[in-house]
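Ops channel
N.P.: pipeline sanity check, posting one input/output pair.
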């Protein structure tokens, strides 16, 4: 019989994490799941009216959470991108392409109503520790 799988989590300090009782990212075994992430920094919204700037900030935030749990962006195997206005798809997709050109995770991009009208992009990610070693 084996013991419990390794589990760890990290927080980014947004009000929603405590309010709704969730973690920014959770590692279970070799898998890391990153919650839907918006461009919310310590001083509030980052990149107002700029979907590409929001996407860059979000991917930096996701990368930080994954690194805290022992992984890297190279380990990302899936992303889900939500945009509040489908006309922003290309600007956001280009930022995604800059960060993941060599990784090429499975990806979905859809239009959705986000937590507030000022939020143009939300991204979630899944990583498997060591997946980047196969590249």
């Amino acid at each position: 019989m084996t013991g419990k799988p390794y589990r760890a989590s990290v927080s980014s300090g947004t009000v929603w994490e405590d309010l709704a009782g969730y973690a920014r990212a959770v590692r279970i075994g070799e898998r890391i799941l990153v919650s839907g992430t918006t461009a919310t920094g310590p001083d509030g919204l980052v990149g107002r009216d700029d979907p590409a700037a929001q996407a860059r900030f979000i991917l930096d935030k996701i990368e930080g959470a994954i690194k805290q749990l022992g992984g890297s962006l190279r380990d990302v195997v899936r992303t889900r991108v939500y945009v509040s206005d489908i006309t922003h798809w290309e600007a956001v997709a280009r930022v995604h392409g800059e960060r993941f050109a060599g990784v090429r995770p499975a990806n979905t991009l859809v239009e959705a109503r986000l937590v507030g009208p000022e939020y143009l992009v939300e991204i979630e990610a899944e990583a498997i520790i060591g997946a980047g070693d196969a590249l």
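N.P.: looks fine end to end. The chain is about 25% helix and 30% strand.
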